[in-house]
Each structure stands twice: as C-alpha cells, then as structure tokens.
Design goal:
This protein has six helices and 20 strands. It is an alpha+beta fold. It has four domains: 48 residues, no CATH class; 86 residues, Beta Barrel (conserved putative lor/sdh protein from methanococcus maripaludis s2 fold), CATH 2.40.420; 100 residues, Beta Barrel (Elongation Factor Tu (Ef-tu), domain 3), CATH 2.40.30.170; 117 residues. Strand 15 and strand 16 form a beta hairpin.
C-alpha cells in the first residue's frame, strides 16, 4: 500500500515538472540535478525538450518579394474629363389621338423601326368623311347661289341706270352677293377643317425611329380629351448622351468647342467601351445647387450599342498633354501622407516615394512631381511591401 502511494507521488511530480517545462523551459533547465535514476531520466527528457539558443544560426531577415516593374515614360497624354450621364433619344414622340373614335387597326409592330409618314393607327374615318362631304356640298350650294346673285346684281345695275329699279334694290342685291362670297369662304374653311379631322383619323409617324410597346389595342375607343397614348417612338440613329461637368471646367470646354468639337467616349459602368461621338451642346446655365453644368454629345449608333435611358460613364477629350510623365494607375497608392508609389532602388529594395498626380484615368496616371523618366515603379504585390523591403524582379521594366 505504501509503495503505491509512493508511485502515485512520483507520477504527480513528473506531471508537475512537465507542466513547468512547458510554461518556463529556461527555468526548468536551471533546476538542481535530481536525485535517483528515474529522476535523472526525467531531467534529461525535459532538458532535451527545452529550446536552446544556437549561436551558430544567424537571425532570419525579411522575405524577398517577387514583383513586376515598369519604367516611367514620357508620352502625349489626352486630357480627358470623366463624367456620369444618361443616354437619351435624339427625338422622342408619344403618339396620341387628336380625334374621338374606335381604332380600326394598328399599323406597327412593337420594337420595329418605322419611317416618318408610316401609318401607326387608323381610327374609324367614316364620321369624318361624312362631315367633309357635307361641307363640300354646302360650298357647292353657296357657289351656285353666288352665281345667281351676281347675275341679278348685273341686271339691277342696268335697271338702275334706266330708272326701272331703285338704288335701294341694287344695294340690297350687292349685300346679298357679298354675303354669299363670305359664305363661300366659310364653306372653304369648313372643308379644310373637316379634311383635317379626317387626316387626324389616320395617325402617322412624325419621325423615323424605333417603336416601343403598344399601349392600346385595335377595337378600343380613344378620345382626344383623355389624351390616350398609342405608342412612343424614339430616334436612336443618331442618339445622344447628356452628362455633367464641374463648373471650374467650363472655360476649358468652351475653349475646346471653339475648334473641332471634342470627342466623347461612352463606357459602361465596368469600363467596356460602347461608342465614340462628339460634343455638340453646352447648356446655357450652371446648376447652382450642384455647381455643375450639362453637356450633350451625339453618336451615330449604327450598331445600336446605345439605348435611351442607359447610364454611362463619359470621357471628354478637351486637349493633349504633350510629353507628360506617365505610369500605370495601378502603381499609385494612397497613404497617410498622400499618394505614393514604390520605386525599385539600386540596392534591390522597394523604395517608398511620395508623388503628386496631375490627373488619372482608370489605366494611366500623369505624374506632376516625385518621379523621373526611366525610373522603375513596382506594379504588383504592392500590399506586401514596405519601405526598403527586398524584392526580386520577375519581369524586365517596360513602358507604361
């Protein structure tokens, strides 16, 4: 029984020594040598498990980062203004009826191109044809009466000279002739009005463009008073884009418009190029609430890449910056002290360099100061770098 207690105590000691080695191995290694063979064995095991400083192993330095570089180059860089805009039809018309009646037929197919003058819808023309016929008949009747009244006026003129008729009879007949002349003019106007109403019964396209969704079907009654819409036509060849620019760019844009119209490129939100056109209009006022003004560009749009209502990003070229220092935009980073890049140093280390950027596109940045032509800037693995990080170049320096 006593032997078992001694064994259990020995196990506890071993456990405590092992825990102490894990917590403070340097202290365990300095304990006094234990007594007994088993204790000596435990001491040797713990000592071998304790880490030892190896004075012959040098301290590891920072890892070498693999990077790619490009050289800073001079190039002619277009001066562009980036803006946000929306595509709109060059002309857009919502067709409505000008007369009342039932629609006999629809003359277009949704989504098809129509030409100016094409029949869009036909309203029952019979009531308006009857009104035209009635006005025409009334004019014919008044013309006949006018002919007879003029003959009577000639007779009265002869009789008055011979005193066979009074002057009053002659004047009365003259008034009748004048009245019939006025009636004939009124009849002509009534005919024109009736013919116009008849023409309105045939709704035609006022412009060439793309038909939208049909808003009413054949057989329905329409009313001019209700302004019932039939379809909307949109001219998309050419097409326009309206966008804004900050008011401090007004002078440069106006100056650029004095020569050849500046070119305008429109892109999707993810940067895909859609079309290139020209600037055609500068709005006549600045919005004081946003300090911006509107611009309008026009595009041929033969491939129908642009569609009314499409949100786009615009790039307006208003000049060219000759012999500018350029680097890839991906090399430019922002830190606590402003913009910076990493330059490949002569010692094979990344050198943090603060720079000033005159302007920047999604691909290229124009450097105002901080770099010189021919220097190599790092363009990848930048997030792994710090000032004086050792690097290894995987690709030779190339132009930006």
């Amino acid at each position: 029984m006593r032997s078992r207690h001694i064994l259990e105590a020995g196990v506890v000691v071993v456990v405590l020594l092992a825990a102490g080695a894990a917590y403070a191995p340097d202290r365990v290694a300095t304990l006094a040598p234990p007594v007994g063979p088993l204790a000596h064995r435990i001491h040797d095991l713990l000592a071998s498990a304790s880490p030892r400083a190896d004075s012959s192993t040098p301290a590891a330095g920072p890892p070498v980062i693999r990077v790619s570089v490009v050289s800073v180059q001079r190039a002619d860089m277009p001066e562009t203004l980036i803006g946000l805009g929306q595509v709109q039809a060059e002309n857009s018309v919502t067709l409505r009826t000008r007369v009342d009646g039932a629609i006999d037929r629809i003359g277009f197919v949704e989504g098809d191109n129509v030409k100016a003058g094409d029949v869009i819808a036909q309203i029952d023309p019979r009531p308006y044809q009857a009104a035209l016929d009635q006005a025409t008949a009334k004019k014919a009747q008044d013309e006949a009466n006018l002919i007879n009244a003029r003959l009577d006026l000639e007779r009265y003129a002869t009789l008055v000279k011979k005193d066979y008729a009074t002057r009053q009879q002659f004047d009365t007949q003259q008034a009748l002739v004048n009245q019939l002349i006025a009636s004939e003019a009124a009849d002509a106007a009534a005919i024109d009005a009736a013919r116009l109403q008849l023409d309105y019964a045939t709704i035609r396209a006022p412009i060439s463009g793309r038909a939208g969704l049909r808003l009413i079907d054949a057989g329905n009654l329409v009313s001019a008073a209700q302004q019932t819409a039939i379809v909307t036509l949109a001219q998309i060849e050419p097409i326009a884009a309206v966008f804004t620019a900050p008011q401090n760019e007004l002078g440069r844009i106006t100056k650029a418009m004095a020569g050849d119209p500046p070119s305008v490129e429109v892109d999707t939100a993810d940067g895909a190029k859609l079309a290139v056109g020209k600037l055609v209009v500068i709005d006549n006022q600045v919005d004081p609430t946003t300090a911006t003004f509107k611009l309008k560009a026009e595009f041929a749009n033969a491939d129908h890449a642009l569609w009314p209502g499409l949100a786009v990003t615009t790039q307006t070229t208003i000049g060219v910056d000759r012999n500018a220092l350029t680097i890839p935009a991906a090399a430019v980073q922002r830190g606590a002290k402003g913009l910076f890049v990493y330059v490949l140093g002569a010692n094979g280390r990344a050198e943090l360099r603060n720079v000033k950027i005159a302007r920047q596109t999604p691909e290229v940045a124009v450097v105002a100061s901080g770099l010189a032509a021919g220097e190599s800037v790092i363009i990848d693995n930048i997030f792994l770098l710090q000032d004086q990080t050792p690097v290894r170049v995987d690709s030779p320096a190339t132009g930006s």
